[in-house]
Amino acid sequence: MRSPLSPEMATQEVPLNETLAHLKTESETLKLKLEEERAKLHDVELHQVAEKVEGLGQFVMKTRRTLKGHGNKVLCMDWCKDKRRIVSSSQDGKVIVWDAFTTNKEHAVTMPCTWVMACAYAPSGCAVACGGLDNKCSVYPLSLDKNENLAAKKKSVAMHTNYLSACSFTNSDMQILTSSGDGTCALWDVESGQLLQSFHGHAADVLCLDLAPSETGNTFVSGGCDKKANVWDMRSGQCIQSFETHESDINSVRYYPSGDAFASGSDDATCRLYDLRADREVAIYSKESIIFGVSSVDFSLSGRLLFGGYNDYTINVWDVLKGTRVSILFGHENRVSTLRVSPDGTAFCTGSWDHTLRIWA
Amino acid sequence: MIYYFSFLTRSTSGRSHTILSKRTIEDILTRIQDETEGVPIRTVKSFMTKIPSVVTGADIVQWLMKNLSIEDPAEAMHIGSLIAAQGYFFPISDHVLSLRDDGTFYRFQAPYFWPSNCWEPENTDYAIYLCKRTMQNKTRLELTDYEAENLARLQRAFARKWEFIYMQAEAQVKIDRKKDKIERKILDSQERAFWDVHRPVPGCVNTTEMDIRKCRRMKNLHRVKKSVYGLTEEGKQSQSPIHTFFQHCPKGTKEDVEKEISFLKTQLDRHCMKMSKVAESLITYAEQFMDYDPFLTSPEPSNPWTSDDPTFWDLEASKEPSQQRVKKWGFSLEEALKDSAGRELFLKFLESEFSSENLRFWLAVQDLKKMPQEEVAQRAEEIWAEFLAEGAPSSINLDSHSYERTSQNLKDPGRYSFEDAQDHIYNLMKSDSYARFLRSNVYQDLLNARKKAVWKIAG
């Protein structure tokens, strides 16, 4: 009997009459081999190398603004490139645009569905996208005229066969990337509503996505209920890397600012860091006292801090390099459902099931 | 030969699996009630009565701190309150489910009432419960204001079947009477705590609210709603509308596994970086941008969010980039191009060298990718004509391979037709013109301009 670990395995052709069982065995063997190969390069832990890095001092992070106005759970929010405006969406179907600096509400739209789980600000600042239980992603242009009915100009862009979990404009107002409970992600042309590319590979609901920060890159990462985080090539629709170390749903993924790594937050109460060059998980952020799931994660501008919003109503701030928690923030009176750092890193915003949003700095 | 099965996941970074084992609240509940390792649960004598099976809040807080490695009692109280709010333990004399770090008495909830049993009790059950409370002459069972209001509302809502509800309540009272006095005390309190979770005090968080995205995959997918008091609704198989089972594309067909094998083989061929190098790279990046991270280095003159003064934003938006910002352009070509002012200056420099076509091509392709689908083909052809066609006015230098590929792509022009060319040009700029740009007078003057100014003031 030939050894499954023999080198020929990697290059020989698969005969047409292989049974499914044999194929599965081959797959499992390859997985093992892959794990072996990756482990060989794991010569040290990140936190060990980071011992030489100066420790972070004490942080004074407080709620600087509280935005009240939603009538039900806040589910999602996004920042405008102008660093002070935000859009937020909630369970009661309301989508609100705020000047977070003054706390004034500037626009409000009522969606025809409840549970608006996704919203995004267009790079130009002239439109917002949102969707949820309606299985669609719609774009609303923001009018300067306060009296104009925004809903009238609504454009339906994406159509999925299950709930919309996340949406994001690419670096232009003209394309939107979406993820859905139907297990797929998709790239859409806003003007025509045309599907430009679809991404198949998750075995369950896709809950989150994040576009790579590179000016030159064409990739994004998604996380799902299959516990996998997949990195995709937007041009071909192919999954180019996959990571499966979480023990439960991945609720949030976010790239490290250099684009070489990304963090994830999961119902298993941990955040993890995956490096694309090592093709491996390189850090876990967890504590025995943290037993509730992570809903949302984001990095500070330098990537040194990782902010996590949790289902236990708190925000935990992690030292990404050393792996330790540097701060725990209380304030929300129900789950933190969404968390984003502002474009210039001066603050981060959280949205919660307690109907409010908070700006922290 | 040992064959491993499909539950094998790629290993973690080697940390102890005790941290990663399924750390559910129920594990904690089991440990906290353990006879030797748990909190001291005892019967307390009070005036003329005994209070069975209680523990103080302080004991719970202490146990949590010790067993979950919590340093701050406030943190222990927060997590304890959450566990209480979910209904796993409760104060015996209060409807508000929170943990206090004092002598307040708490009792543990019966596993029958644990949230993991997927309770969604109907209002008929709640009505029976409130009704039977009024039937018993005990001060500890007296309805609070909000409960009395709830009962009144339910009486109106169920006016037609109230006789039935009343009868059920009477039946429950009969059953309860048969139980031992101490047992009844405990069960009554547990039952009350159950309803405190499912019909919380107004103002308290309803912890039974669920994230709709997760509902479909809960334990009892096709279950019939069960009654706390054993009622069966004749013929009514009530299935929550959100519990519709959705079949995802089933994994495991021959095609799927073949795809997986192909993917794995590609991954095996990938050349990966050693962890030590990766770590150095992540550290270097974070340290390089530390000065630019407002959470680590206070922005000048102040963080608008903390000072309520937007001057920092006004300065960033002004035509004159700060010295710090100019310094960032020197970190990488990526950083220079990210910043509109950096892009402008680099372009100006290249124009002075009569070699701006590379950057202009790169920028044109970036714009192409941002266009609406309808306009893509035409724009792609325009870019070809301007930069690559024979006799093009802004002719760029491509290697023959990229040129051939691009030429082929233009037969069916699309958003990504110029990817190869763009990569090639980017690398060219990075290795050649970018380095010269950083050494150039235009850049150095700007980089040092502020420095000179600062010296002047100080001198």
From TrEMBL, chain A:
Residue spans crossing the bilayer: none
Organism: Oryzias sinensis (Chinese medaka)
Pfam families xref list: WD40_Gbeta
Repeat is among the record's keywords: yes
Protein name stated in the entry: Guanine nucleotide binding protein (G protein), beta 5a
Database matches in SMART domains: WD40
Family in the record: Belongs to the WD repeat G protein beta family.
Keyword Repeat: yes
GO BP term, pick one: signal transduction
Residue windows of the WD repeats: 67-108, 157-198, 199-242, 243-284, 294-328, 329-361
InterPro entries: G-protein_beta_1-5 (IPR016346), WD40/YVTN_repeat-like_dom_sf (IPR015943), WD40_G-protein_beta-like (IPR001632), WD40_PAC1 (IPR020472), WD40_repeat_CS (IPR019775), WD40_repeat_dom_sf (IPR036322), WD40_rpt (IPR001680)
Taxonomy, superkingdom: Eukaryota
UniProtKB/TrEMBL annotation, chain B:
Recorded GO CC terms: cytosol; neuron projection; plasma membrane
Pfam families xref list: DEP (PF00610), G-gamma (PF00631), RGS (PF00615), RGS_DHEX (PF18148)
Cell compartments where the protein resides: Cell membrane; Cytoplasm, Cytosol; Membrane
Residue ranges crossing the lipid bilayer per the database entry: none
Keywords, ordered alphabetically: Cell membrane, Cytoplasm, Membrane, Signal transduction inhibitor
Residue ranges of every copy of the RGS domain listed in the record: 332-447
Highest taxon, organism lineage: Eukaryota
Main location: membrane
Gene Ontology molecular function: GTPase activator activity
Membrane topology: Peripheral membrane protein
Cited InterPro entries: DEP_dom (IPR000591), G-protein_gamma-like_dom (IPR015898), GGL_sf (IPR036284), RGS (IPR016137), RGS6/7/9/11 (IPR047016), RGS6/7/9/11_DHEX_sf (IPR047017), RGS_DHEX (IPR040759), RGS_sf (IPR036305)
One GO BP: intracellular signal transduction
Domain DEP intervals: 35-110
PANTHER family, per database record: LP21163P, REGULATOR OF G-PROTEIN SIGNALING 6
Protein name: Regulator of G protein signaling 6
